[in-house]
Amino acid sequence: MAALLALGLAATAQASTPDEARWQHEAQAVTITRDDWGIAHVHGKTDADAVFGMAYAQAEDDFNRVETNYLNAMGRLAEAEGESAIWQDLRMKLFIDPATLKTLYAKSPTWLQALMNSWADGLNYYLAMHPDVHPRVIRHFEPWMALSFSEGSIGGDIERVSLNQLEAFYGHDPVTALARVEPPSSWAEPTGSNGIAIAPRLTANGHALLLINPHTSFFFRSELQMTSDAGLDVYGAVTWGQFFIYQGFNHHIGWMHTSTGLDAVDEFAETIVHKDGKLFYRYGKERRPVTTRTISVPYRAADGSMAERSFTVYATHHGPIVRAKDGKWIAIALMNKPMEALEQSWLRTRASDYASYMKVAELKANSSNNTIFADDKGEIAYLHPQFIPKRDDRFDYAKPVDGSDPATDWKDLLPLDAAPHLLNPPNGWIFNTNDWPYSAAGPYSPKRADYPRYMDRAGENPRGIHATRVLSGQQGFTLSSLITAAFDSYLPAFARQIPILVADYDALPANDPLRPRLAGQIALLRNWDYRWGIASMPTSLAVFWGDILWDKVDKADTAEGLSIYDYMAEKAGPQARLGALVEASDRLEKDFGSWGVPWGEINRYQRINGAIVQPFDDARPSIPVPFTSSRWGSLASFGAHRWPGTRRYYGTSGNSFVAVVEFGDKVRARAITAGGESGHPDSPHFNDEAERYTTGNLRTVYFWPEQLKGHIERVYHPGS
């Protein structure tokens, strides 16, 4: 420590600008301890000091992902990636305006300004100390920028806006915009996560347990700990570039966010009137002027120079216009409360029990996440999102509603107790898998009939059925048995679908040519226990079959309100189901030489370099992964498919961070992060957790100082 202090004093003496002097002074108030997994344990004198240190540590691990997240958040991606990102930037700029964010920063509470200031200082100090790092666009971070990315979900509300339809409207070329080739729908891993809370009466040690299991794109979040002399002590997953723990725990409480099925993003069909060269829209008996403004989108041209496109964009009081349909302009309404969202995201990390967590929730700036909660008092809870506008339930907000009818308008936000919620249900467990809240606690769940339709658009899903199965009737839970439940290999979607496929085969006439063609495949599936595994051949055949049928059914007319699973089982018909099995067999034979292939030979984890988009290669080393897409009900999710030039499936999303937490006298936890903590291929922590990740072998979390002893690689001040 004396050596560190001497280095710090020497660095301060060399400061050439007031900014550098301030950064160096802040750095001396921060200590970063890297454990033997490369995870940063950041300590500061104040909370702001801890933010400075964690921003610096994140930049050390993967500055590219930090910067890219803010290029996305501020609508500046095209400045780095060119014309292809123009529409993504325009979408962000419909909602994000630097002038507005600067005003909000000036109005922010002093404590929040201090955190934003330290966040920017930590990133700028990193850049100053690493002149070999060349940002693609952002060479200096300003405090207000933190308000552009104040909620840590992988897919924010804004992603409901279709880029193709936005381009068709503002690019005035609907044929080109809407004719783009889309990848098969089976390639899109269902977004979301798993959260489970277990009450003390069902645990072996009499302590509440919590499963934290976000399903995101791999390497989307960092894992770290933040502490301060002011009482901050929180551990968990941080979305790159943000300064708060998004999913995690502190001394007393833990929280897990799962993407919600709540309808908090609505479209309004506006009737546009042209008069005297001006645009109006009908609203009741009024004709209101359409708001117009110009948005400029800079982009990097093919020759490396900077160019710019300008757009005249439109809005009504419902929100910006994002597309057209049936002669109407469609406006979109969604939550846009960056300051309150950032406050809520930070303050919940400092809550100490259910009551204080709920006090923070009163900010009502969470629109996209359900929450599973547990604490050291033994309380467990389910929270629906808190940003819920009251609406007239006569209208179906799953579709664009008539914007000219004032009755469709959003009203005030609902009170928290008007949404589905649970606290300490008698069954002793709560879960959410991005399904509806109406099965979160078995028979003690909120009742669907008690709430308006807009409270949920997700319905049930196979992971929800699976979670109910592994939780019902169980007791004596431990950290280990909760991990076992989180990696249970049962696939309930196939348990429903495969018997129907087998029955289709059995009903074939004796002389049907499909009988000999599919005899071996059906025999394999008929005797399957519907569980994934590295050596499982039925898993390979079922996944290939399911993906092919999924893509066919996804294009079918589902106007009857059936889910894709219902359509596969009830409407697809024997010909489509058996035909998909023929296609699956042919594909396996073409790619692997046989339709009987162990799943681990196909389904692989591979991390070649630090790029955000990986160049997958069958000739390069990879690791077998036993679990499947969550589409089929696997709680442990691995979203994988073929890539250009590959036969094998390579995963890019799913289980990205997994933690189990026990809230005893002293909180303890085990966790795993996909791949490793560092984004640098030359780091020992680039891929050191990969094998543990693929086998569900969670490591001990070094939360307490005594746990770190013997597991420390490096202790340093930022910049030293």
Taking the sheet with the most strands, its summary is: 10 strands, mixed
Flag low-confidence runs: 4-13
Mean pLDDT: 94
Rg, alpha carbons: 26 Å
C-alpha end-to-end distance: 12 Å
Share of β-strand residues: 15-25%
Give me the side-by-side strand order of the main sheet.
20-18-17-8-7-6-5-2-1-29
> Got a strand count?
29
Helix content: 25-40%
Shape: globular
Topology:
Layout (H helix, E strand, L loop, with lengths): L1 H12 L4 H10 L2 E6 L4 E5 L2 H27 L4 H4 L4 H8 L4 H10 L2 H20 L33 H8 L3 H5 L13 E7 L9 E10 L3 E8 L4 E7 L7 E4 L2 E7 L6 E5 L1 E4 L2 E6 L2 E4 L1 E10 L5 E11 L2 E7 L2 E6 L4 H10 L6 H8 L7 E7 L4 E4 L17 E2 L18 E3 L5 E4 L29 H10 L7 H8 L5 H15 L7 H13 L10 H18 L9 H8 L1 H20 L6 H4 E3 L17 E2 L13 E4 L7 E7 L1 E7 L4 E6 L16 H6 L3 E2 L4 H4 L3 E5 L4
Parallel strand pairs: 2-5, 9-19, 22-25
Antiparallel strand pairs: 1-2, 1-29, 3-4, 3-21, 4-25, 4-26, 5-6, 6-7, 7-8, 8-17, 9-16, 10-11, 11-12, 13-14, 14-15, 15-16, 17-18, 18-20, 22-23, 24-25, 26-27, 27-28
Helix pairs in contact: 1-2, 2-7, 3-7, 14-15, 15-18, 16-17, 16-18
